[in-house]
Amino acid sequence: xxxxxxxxxxxxxxxxxxxxxxxxxxxxxxxxxxxxxxxxxxxxxxxxxxxxxxxxxxxxxxxxxxxxxxxxxxxxxxxxxxxxxxxxxxxxxxxxxxxxxxxxxxxxxxxxxxxxxxxxxxxxxxxxxxxxxxxxxxxxxxxxxxxxxxxxxxxxxxxxxxxxxxxxxxxxxxxxxxxxxxxxxxxxxxxxxxxxxxxxxxxxxxxxxxxxxxxxxxxxxxxxxxxxxxxxxxxxxxxxxxxxxxxxxxxxxxxxxxxxxxxxxxxxxxxxxxxxxxxxxxxxxxxxxxxxxxxxxxxxxxxxxxxxxxxxxxxxxxxxxxxxxxxxxxxxxxxxxxxxxxxxxxxxxxxxxxxxxxxxxxxxxxxxxxxxxxxxxxxxxxxxxxxxxxxxxxxxxxxxxxxxxxxxxxxxxxxxxxxxxxxxxxxxxxxxxxxxxxxxxxxxxxxxxxxxxxxxxxxxxxxxxxxxxxxxxxxxxxxxxxxxxxxxxxxxxxxxxxxxxxxxxxxxxxxxxxxxxxxxxxxxxxxxxxxxxxxxxxxxxxxxxxxxxxxxxxxxxxxxxxxxxxxxxxxxxxxxxxxxxxxxxxxxxxxxxxxxxxxxxxxxxxxxxxxxxxxxxxxxxxxxxxxxxxxxxxxxxxxxxxxxxxxxxxxxxxxxxxxxxxxxxxxxxxxxxxxxxxxxxxxxxxxxxxxxxxxxxxxxxxxxxxxxxxxxxxxxxxxxxxxxxxxxxxxxxxxxxxxxxxxxxxxxxxxxxxxxxxxxxxxxxxxxxxxxxxxxxxxxxxxxx
Amino acid sequence: xxxxxxxxxxxxxxxxxxxxxxxxxxxxxxxxxxxxxxxxxxxxxxxxxxxxxxxxxxxxxxxxxxxxxxxxxxxxxxxxxxxxxxxxxxxxxxxxxxxxxxxxxxxxxxxxxxxxxxxxxxxxxxxxxxxxxxxxxxxxxxxxxxxxxxxxxxxxxxxxxxxxxxxxxxxxxxxxxxxxxxxxxxxxxxxxxxxxxxxxxxxxxxxxxxxxxxxxxxxxxxxxxxxxxxxxxxxxxxxxxxxxxxxxxxxxxxxxxxxxxxxxxxxxxxxxxxxxxxxxxxxxxxxxxxxxxxxxxxxxxxxxxxxxxxxxxxxxxxxxxxxxxxxxxxxxxxxxxxxxxxxxxxxxxxxxxxxxxxxxxxxxxxxxxxxxxxxxxxxxxxxxxxxxxxxxxxxxxxxxxxxxxxxxxxxxxxxxxxxxxxxxxxxxxxxxxxxxxxxxxxxxxxxxxxxxxxxxxxxxxxxxxxxxxxxxxxxxxxxxxxxxxxxxxxxxxxxxxxxxxxxxxxxxxxxxxxxxxxxxxxxxxxxxxxxxxxxxxxxxxxxxxxxxxxxxxxxxxxxxxxxxxxxxxxxxxxxxxxxxxxxxxxxxxxxxxxxxxxxxxxxxxxxxxxxxxxxxxxxxxxxxxxxxxxxxxxxxxxxxxxxxxxxxxxxxxxxxxxxxxxxxxxxxxxxxxxxxxxxxxxxxxxxxxxxxxxxxxxxxxxxxxxxxxxxxxxxxxxxxxxxxxxxxxxxxxxxxxxxxxxxxxxxxxxxxxxxxxxxxxxxxxxxxxxxxxxxxxxxxxxxxx
Lengths: 785, 785
Description:
Chain A is α+β, with helices and mostly antiparallel strands and 785 residues long. The first copy, chain A, is 31% helix and 24% strand.
C-alpha cells in the first residue's frame, strides 16, 4: 500500500523526466487527455511501444455475450464494452529512413509533462538514431474542452548536428491490435476487430474514415487534417483505405530548422445519424478547429481551465505532494465529465478499458458531489443522462418483480451489464446514489427546469423502488432484505444500514416534493396515498444496532459473524477477492470498503457523535481497503471523529492512488472515484462540509502537518471560499450582489456570510477522540505525519 | 401438477399399449434399463425416431469449460458431462428392402412392456410395410444385473402373409448426433463428437470399437457379438470402421418361420488401462455372456430380482396405481445403484443426460437410505465411492479456507462442477448427507471393515468441516453462517436449521466414535482435544426459533421476511425459478422444497410434537414443490403430524413423478431422488420408520384409502417385515436364529421381536392433528381420497 513516488513534486504539473518503457501502462493512464466526450490515452506519438493503445468516445460501445455456467431468470444476456475507436494520435517519424523508436538508437532525453493549468501533454525528446543522426522532437497534445469533438497535436522536429531527411507519417488507424482481454475466446473475437469499415476519403492533407460496430450498430466518423509549417520544400501526400489513412510529409531540414505540423483530429458518433450526416459533422468540426487554429485552441483551453480552477482548486499548505495529487485528481474528474453532456461518467473516465468502460454507483456518490460543487452544469448533464435511461431502469425493476426504477450496477448505455447478480442486481444502493445526487444537485443549484424535466421523476421512481423492495414486519418496522451494500465483501444482507438510511432520505424527499410539483406528480401517477406510503416507509425504516457492542452492524447480524482470520492472510494475498472465495468473505467480518462508515458520511444526521466514534473504530479494525473508493470516505469520517492525522494518511492514499499506482492497476485507467474522493476528503474531511437536507454545514479542522487549506464551493450561483488555518476558518462569499447572504453553520454555530464581508470563526478545541482505531495487520495507511 | 395417467395400471409391469411418437422422450426414460454401471435409454431398436439416443457408463464423462461473465476465486474452471457412449442398441430391419420405421407403412400393433420382475423390456410389433408386406417383430432387451458389463437383445422377426426377404443390420455407433444442448457453442463443440477413435476390429459376427475422450482421457471399448437362429439359409457379414461397425444378417423367410438373433453387448472403460487390456476385457465379457447364453442371462436376471423384491417390495392394498408406481420407482432406484460399485448414483441414474449426469446430495439422503434398508451392499459401495473422493473434497475445503472435507454439490468424478456458488458451494449440507448416510449404513449393517477403511474418515472429515465452518458467538452459541440449505429458493442464510441439526449429529457422532477407533483416529490425527471441540460445537449448536409465531424459521430471520406474493403468480409461471429472479426468491417466504420439514424428518428428535405440527402447517403454506424431491418428505411429515390423506396425496405425487411426467422433464431422465422418496414416504411415512442414533422406531398409521401396506427392512443381516392394517401392525423377523431378537419401538412402546415370533400391536388412535395445512394457491397436490 506504499509504493514509492515516481513523479517529481510540482504544484501544477505531472512530469516524467525520463521514460520507463516497462511503466507505459501506468503513464498512458496518467497522461491521458479527455474532455468527457473524447479521450486519448497517453500513448507515445509514434504508436509503439504501448501497453494499451486507447482512443475512446463516451458511450461508444460494442455488445458482447455474457456467458453463464448456469443460467438464471433475469440475467443479462449481453454486456457492453467500450471500444478502442480509430486512433488518430499516431505520428511516425523517420529520420533518414530510420524510424524514431525509443527502443532503438540513443535516447538522450525524454520528458513528458502534463500541465494541469494549460490542459496539455507536452513531450520533449532528444534522440540519436542508430545511424547517429540526432534530432529534437517536441510535441504538444490536447483534447479540447471548448470544442468537444476535437483533439489536436503539434509535432515539431529539428535536426541537431547534421541535415536530415525527415518523413512524418500521420495516421488514422481503426481496429488496432489490442492486448488480450480475458480468457473467453468468443468475447475476444467480438472485440478484436469491432469496427466495420463503411467509407473512407482523403484530400492532400486530410482524411476521414467511417465505421460501424457489428452488433451495437453505432457509427463513428474520425477525421484528421494538418497544417504544416516549414521554411523548406515539403512534399505532402495522403491516402486512405478502409481501416487506415495516412498523410506523409517529407522534407529535408538543416540544424536550426524546424518542421512543425499541427494535426487536428475530429470525431463524431451516433446510433441514429446517417453516414453522410456523420461525415459532414466531423468535417465541420475539423473546419472549425482549423479556423480556430492551434494557438486559439491552446488559449481557449487555458481560459477554460483558469475558470475551472478558480472555482474548484483546493490549496494546501504543508504537504506539497498532496497538493500536486489533489490537483491531478481533480483534473481527471474534470476530464471525465466536463463535456459528457448527457452521457455517463465511467469508473475509469475515458482513460482506459478497465471495468469495460462502465459507469457504477461512484459516478453519483463520488464524482457528482465534486462536480455539483465545482462545475454544477456538468453534474446536471450526467443526471440528465441517468434520467434518459429511466425507461430501461423501469423495465429492469419489472423483470425483478419491483416497481419504480432499478438502475444498473454497471452499464454504458443504461442496460444492466453485470454477470454476477449478488454483487450487482442486489446492490440496489446504486439507485439511492441517483436520488441523492439529484437532491444534492437541486439543493446546490435550485435548477427547477431540471427538476421538472428529470429530477422529480428520478426521485419518484427510486422512492417507488424502495417501497416495493421493502416491507413492514409484524411490529411495523420497514425492512430492505437481501440487498448488497457498498462493501463488496458482503452480499445479500438484510437491512444494510447505508442503503436503509439513504433510502429513507429518498422516500422522505420524494414525499416532501409531491406538493411542490403537482403537474409532474400527476404525470407520474403519484397520488397522496402513494406519497403517504413513502413517508411511512421512511419513518419506520429499520436500522439495526448491536446493543452489546454499542455499534451499528453494517447489516443485520454482521457484528455477530465470525471474525475474519487476518493472521492467516499473507500480505501478498490482497486484494482478498483474488485469494479468498466470496463465500468466506461474505460471512465473516471483513470489509472491502467503507459501507457503515460511508453511511456515517452521507447520512451523518442518523448517528450520534458517540456512535460515530465507536463505529469508526470498529470498522477500521475490519476494513482492508481493497477498493480504491474506501480511503477517501475513511478520511472524511476519521476527520469528523477527531483522528485528523489518520484522515491525512487516508486522504493521501486516495490522492496518490494513481500517481503512485497504489493498486497496481492504473494501467487499466484512472480511478475517477478515488480522484473525486480526494476532493471530498479535503472538503468534507478537513473542511467538514455536510449538506444534509440542503443545509450547508462546515466543521473545519486541520491535521498536524497541514498548515492551511483553501477551497471553494458553488452554491446557487454564488461561490463560497473557505480558508482554514489551525486556529481559524474564514468564509468568503463571491459573485452575488451585496444583498445576497448565505446561511451556514460552523462547528454547529449558525452564521451568515455576505458578499464582501468575510466571516472568521475560531476552530473549537478538538473534543476527546473516540477509541484509537487500528487497522487489520499490514493494512494501515502509509503515515504522512 | 396433475397430468393424466398414460400407462395402464398393472401390479408388476409398465405397459405402453401403442406407441406415441411425440412422447418418445418420456418413454425412453421410463423404459431405460440399467444396472448402475451400464444404462440404455429405451430407444427404439431401429435407432429412430428418437428424442435422445442414450447409452451411458457410470462415471464416463467429458470435461467442458465452465464460462463466467465475471470470474471469482475458487470457481471451478471445468465441468464434467456424461457422454453418450457407443450405441449398441441399434438393429435396423429391412423388409424386402424397405426399412422398418414406425413412421412409415402401417403400424397395426406396437406394445412395449417393462417387466419389473424379469428386468426386461419387451416390444411387440405388427407392421405392414408401405409395399404391403406384413411382419411381426418381437424384441426383448436387458441390462444384466449379474454380468455388469453386459446388455443383450433378442430380436425376432417373422413374415405373416407372404414370404419376405429380411435384412437385419446390427450396429455399434459412436458419436451419434445429439439434440442441441444449451446455448453455449463451445460446450456444444466439446460434446458434439466426444469420442476419438482408437481402434476397431471385427469378425464374421462380432465387432469391437475403442475410443478415448478428448479432454478427460477416458478410454472405452464397446463390442457386440451375435447368435443367430434360423431354419433357412442365412448370410452374415460384419464390417468395422473408426466410428461404427455393422453386422448384416440376410435371409428369406416364409410365414411361420422366425429369424431370431441374440445380440450381446459388452462395455468396458478405464482412465488407466491400456487399449489392449480394455479390448480384451470386453472380449472376455462377451465370451462369458455368450457362454451363459440368452436364456441363462434371463434366468439370472429373474433370480436377482426375485431376491431383491423379497427384501424390498412394498405391498400396498387399496391404491393399485400407487402400487405400480411404487414398484416402478423402486426398480429404478435399483437400476441406478445395483452394480455401481464405487461409483456414484446420479440424479437421473443412467437414464438420461439431465443435470449433466451429476450426482447430488439426494444420492445420500434419498437413494442411500432406501438401499441401506433393501440392498445394503450397494449403499456401502456408493459410500466407498464418496470416500474415494475425499482427497478432492479436502482440497476443495482448503480452497474455501476450511478444514476437513467439503464434498461437491454436483459432480461425476468428485470435483465440484457447479458454476453458481450460492446454490452449490454454500450448500454444505451435501456433506451432512454423506455423514448421515455413513452413520445409517453403519447402524444398519454393523460393517466394521467399512468403518475402518472409509466410514470413520468420512465422519471425521465432515466433523472437521463443520467445526471450521462454524464459530461461537459472544454468548457461546455455535453458528453456521451464510450457508444454503436444501431449499433452493433460499441461499446464504445464517443457521439453516436442517444443516445445523444434521451437523450437530455429525459432530457428536464423530466425537463418540473416537474412542472406538483409536487407530483410525491416530491415522487421521484426531486427538482428544479435537474431539472435544466437536462435542462442544454439537452441544452449543444454535437453532433459531420464532417465539412470536411458535415456529422454526428455515434459517435465521426467514419468518420475518416478506411473504411471497403468490397472487401475482400465474399458474404457468411454475417452476418459479424460470420466471422470478433468484433475488426475489431468496428474500421472500417461498420454499421450493422441504427444508425445515426435511429437518423434521431426519432430525425429528430435535422437535416437539407441537412444533412439528405448527412448523408443518407454516411451511405447507409457503412450499411450491418446484423440486421433485419435496413431495416425499412432505408425505413423511404429513403422516407423522396426522394429516394422513395429505400424506397419501404427496406420496402419490412422488411416486407418479415420472410415470405421469409431472414436471414435464422426464425426457431428461428418471428422478431417482423422487423414486427413492416414494419408498421413504411409504416406510417412513405410513410405516413411521425413524432411525435416530441407530435405534429403530416405527409409528405406522394408514390413510383412509389404503387398507394395508407391507414392507421389509434389512437390519444387521436380519429382515424385519412390517405389516400395517388400519388397526394393527405386525412385526415379523426373518433370517436370524431363534435366539436372535430385535428391539424397536412401536408408537413409542418398546417391543422385542424374535425370529418366528411375530409381534402385533394395535395402532393407537390418531391424536388431534395440528392446524389444517393449506398450500399456496394452485399448488395443492392432486387429491387421491
